[in-house]
Amino acid sequence: MKRKEKEIKDQSVIEDIFESNKICRIGFVDKNVPYVISMNYGYAKSAIYLHTATSGKKLNIIETNNNVCVEITDSVEIIESNIPCKFGTRYRSLICNGKINILTDLEEKKEALKVLMNQHTQRSGWNIPDTAIEQITLLKIELETISGKISGA
User: Fold this and answer.
1) CA-to-CA distance for 140 and 60, rounded, in angstroms?
2) What is the pLDDT of residues 40-74, one digit of tens each?
3) Are 14 and 8 in contact (CB under 8 A)?
4) Which one of 15, 48, 68, 125 is most buried, by most CB atoms within 10 A?
5) Euclidean distance between CA atoms 31 and 9, whole angstroms
6) What is the number of H-type helices and E-type strands within the chain?
7) Burial bucket for residue 94 (CB in 10 Å: 0-12, 13-18, 19+)
8) How many other CB atoms sit within 10 Å of the CB of residue 129?
């Protein structure tokens, strides 16, 4: 990171950013062409869990290249000024790289969906029927690198 004073080094702050947000942006590489989408996610144990349809562009991309970049931003606030070049933005963000894989084990898929549901509802103890799992695809991103940045703090 170029501006070391903005780097988030405290792991508890990084965990807070993962746990307090619900949407991430994922960058895929489709034959040398970037493809970025926003998705709901759940975070647990250094992994990001996602759900999607049972077919589609991102699944096709994953089959040929499972390298991804994930971005999460929170606490966004515009810092205004009477001088145009003095405007700024206050935020915290994470950039992560990892490998995305399609989950196939039924129990692992159920656990992934529980992580997602917990992240979005702050409730646990979900009873997920097998028929619900059959209607969606669950993905897991194993995070390999994580860097955090805070600006305007």
Assistant:
1) 15
2) 999 998 899 999 999 999 999 999 999 999 999 99
3) yes
4) 48
5) 34
6) 4, 8
7) buried
8) 8
How far apart, in whole angstroms, are the C-alpha atoms of residue 45 and residue 61? 25
Q: How far apart are CA 101 and CA 141, in angstroms?
A: 6
- Please, what are the domains in the chain? 4-151 (2.30.110.10)
pTM score = 0.89
Residues, the chain: 153
What three-state secondary structure class fits 141?
Answer: strand
Listed in sequence order, the residues at least 6 apart from 147 whose beta carbon sits closer than 8 Å to its beta carbon are 1, 7, 8, 94, 95, 96
Q: How many Å is the Cα radius of gyration of the chain?
A: 17
Selection from 129, 102, 131, 95 nearest residue 114 by Cα: 129
